[in-house]
Write a structure and sequence with these properties.
Blueprint (H helix, E strand, L loop, with lengths): L12 H11 L5 H27 L14 H25 L9 H15 L1 H5 L26 H34 L2 H11 L6 H34 L11 H27 L8 H32 L2 H12 L3 H13 L7 H5 L1 H28 L14 H24 L5 H6 L1 H15 L1
Helix pairs in contact: 2-15, 3-4, 3-8, 3-9, 3-14, 4-6, 4-15, 6-7, 6-8, 8-9, 9-10, 9-14, 11-12, 12-14
């Protein structure tokens, strides 16, 4: 790991380059042990998936009526995590938000790997994965696809478009920084960065086209933030199942996605700042602003919980009311109240400015938010399926060791990929940080003044 930096109060362009490029130097033993640990868990999860393919879905806990449970919960959770990357990189770019420059690269990278992780779960959920292409809306002789009335078709288009645009946006933003790394590298790294830089020389003409393309992509990516998770929510809201058939699902899911995504950004950035020695680039000012976004979206999510309960009571549908009674006080009621504790009550601590800049407390709060948002997805998906229109069909669900191992493996897969990225590509944008260097200097000077 990189050594802690001596923090300059007024960094110049050279200081920024040195700080970012130092992170990309050869990694130590601790780093490779961590990466090896992550991919060992991935290998275990892969072995469990292979066993599931060989033996069939009977090795999971999936039984009638709960046929969507942990795997689909993970899919919705990871798609939600992916949301904040585009929020921070595109929407905040269009609004010229000052604190965005130091954190957006990590958020975008999180988006790419989160979508890549989410995309695995529809495949894992298949009994015969070699027919994965049946998920795609292509015309075929069985006339099953494309059915444009099905939200699953909308899902394929929405997630595919989001992944494509986010990857293009992320790749383009990397080009100037990779070219910068190429100039400082030697040996195989120089060849590696030369290939990835795709001929970037930083000419006036290249910068002109780059700026225009970046602005257009930001504008294109912005509506996707809203559309993707809205479509994911319609996978449920378009069904007649009590607990799913709700008109507030789209804004409810979008707010929850931004909430969980920004919390995950903080969960990653806080230890990364310390371990990679980039305290001079990521200041408490950046974390304070991210924490405010978490607090705001927590209030929106809390309002959605109250609205959902009120609408159920006001509508007077006895089956819907029974579903929500079971959700609050049934066998899995404790999950709902854990969700409320983690998503509504604990984030209220962020009203305190001291807690927003206390990175240990902030990191613990974001861990609770991540736990709470996973439970929220599980309560909505599996909890609603256990209680349907026919009480004779009600049944419980217990995840098997296969589902638990694959879920842990998905987190290890995500963290392993993210860790590899931090050592081989710039995790902080040198280009945009230089553009906003005046704000970085002010943030560092405020910290020095506080410490004095």
């Amino acid at each position: 790991m990189a050594a802690a930096l001596k923090q300059p109060v007024a960094p110049n362009f050279g200081d920024i380059d040195r700080s970012v490029l130092r992170v990309m130097e050869a990694a130590g033993r601790a780093y490779w042990i961590w990466v090896g640990f992550c991919f060992t868990l991935v290998a275990i999860a892969g072995a469990m998936w292979a066993r599931q393919i060989y033996s069939g879905l009977g090795v999971t806990g999936l039984r009638q009526p709960v046929m969507w449970a942990v795997y689909i919960t993970n899919f919705v959770f990871w798609v939600g995590i992916a949301h904040s990357g585009t929020l921070i990189s595109a929407i905040l770019f269009l609004f010229r938000t000052k604190w965005r420059t130091a954190v957006y690269r990590a958020a975008e990278t999180m988006t790419i790997f989160a979508v890549a992780t989410a995309g695995l779960f529809p495949l894992i959920h298949l009994g015969r994965v070699w027919f994965f292409y049946w998920l795609l809306p292509y015309p075929n002789e069985r006339y099953l696809q494309p059915d444009f009335r099905s939200p699953l078709v909308w899902d394929a288009f929405a997630v595919g478009t989001y992944l494509t645009t986010s990857t293009l946006f992320w790749t383009m933003g990397l080009l100037p920084d990779i070219a910068n790394a190429r100039e400082a590298a030697s040996g195989w790294r120089k060849k590696f960065y030369t290939a990835l830089a795709m001929g970037w020389q930083g000419t006036d003409r290249q910068w002109r086209h780059y700026s225009m393309a970046y602005l257009l992509l930001a504008g294109l990516a912005t509506p996707l933030v809203i559309s993707v998770h809205s479509v994911v929510s319609w996978d449920f809201a378009m069904a007649q199942l009590p607990g799913w058939h709700s008109t507030i699902f789209a804004p409810y899911f979008v707010a929850g996605a931004i909430f969980s995504g920004v919390a995950m950004v903080l969960t990653l950035l806080i230890p990364m700042r310390k371990w990679l020695g980039i305290e001079d680039l990521l200041t408490p000012w950046h974390f304070d602003n991210l924490a405010k976004v978490v607090l705001l979206t927590s209030l929106v999510v809390s309002y959605a919980y109250v609205t959902e309960a009120f609408m159920t009571w006001y509508a007077g549908d006895p089956i819907e009311q029974m579903t929500f009674h079971m959700r609050y006080f049934g066998a899995w009621g404790w999950m709902y109240w854990v969700m409320v504790l983690c998503n509504c009550l604990i984030p209220l601590l962020l009203f305190s400015p001291r807690i927003r800049v206390n990175l240990t407390a902030l990191w613990i709060i974001t861990i609770f938010v991540n736990i709470g948002m996973w439970f929220e997805r599980f309560v909505i998906i599996a909890g609603s399926l256990t209680v349907n229109f026919e009480p004779s069909q009600w049944a419980g669900y217990h995840p098997s060791i296969t589902e638990i191992a694959i879920t842990i493996g998905s987190f290890a897969w995500f963290l392993g990929l993210f860790s590899l990225f931090t050592k081989f590509l710039p995790i902080v944008s040198m280009t945009e940080l230089k553009e906003g260097i005046i704000w970085l200097r002010k943030a560092l000077q405020r910290e020095v003044a506080k410490a004095a």
